[in-house]
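Table 4 source record.
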Amino acid sequence: MEQIYKYRSFSASIASGYKLFRSNIRTILAKSWIEALAMGITFGLLLVGCYKASALGICLAAVAFVVALVFWIERLFVLIDGGTLKDKLWRAAVTTVVGVLFLALPLIGVPLINVMMEIMLEEHPKPLKALATGFKHWGYLFLMLLMSGMIMAILIAVICIPLNISIYGLIVDHIGTVAGDPSGLPSTFPIILFFVGTLTMFVMVFVQIWQTYAIAYSHGAILTRDNRK
């Protein structure tokens, strides 16, 4: 990633993330489609497991999805800074755990975004220092996440239209069967649900890349500002 360590406003970081994604989209697709497809397939299997109400199927698919996510993060950051696969893999695993904490602590956990970038981008990561820096620049990170998140919400709403229709049909059918009506879903519905879920997730992870790049630029901007001071 060129000129990551340059101070930018949060809006400039978002714009730079999109510009980097747009200018390298062919390379990204060519070098990461396998990992993206793995995420799509495991997500499709997770949906089928939920449809079948299979606890074992849900657990296995969820574990497979997390593993696919780790490999996706690893691949994405190898493309960003050219690190080795072995080095990025363990970093991606740690980052996934931190990401779960971030989701569990919506506002308080905003600085964890900086910790994740520290782990993935810095040669000798210092997570605790990155956490302190994240709290120091909480407002900057929050505004960047808020603006990029609003854009992503709109994009996801469009991308997920087929999936939402499928899930809505499943919910309505379930309500009907509980009331005593026969199921109106075709026997091929699990297959349809699988392919819709796979395609949706495959597209979604690629669309989200620009936001990841924006977060990386924000991390570089924060470090640059602190070093100048």
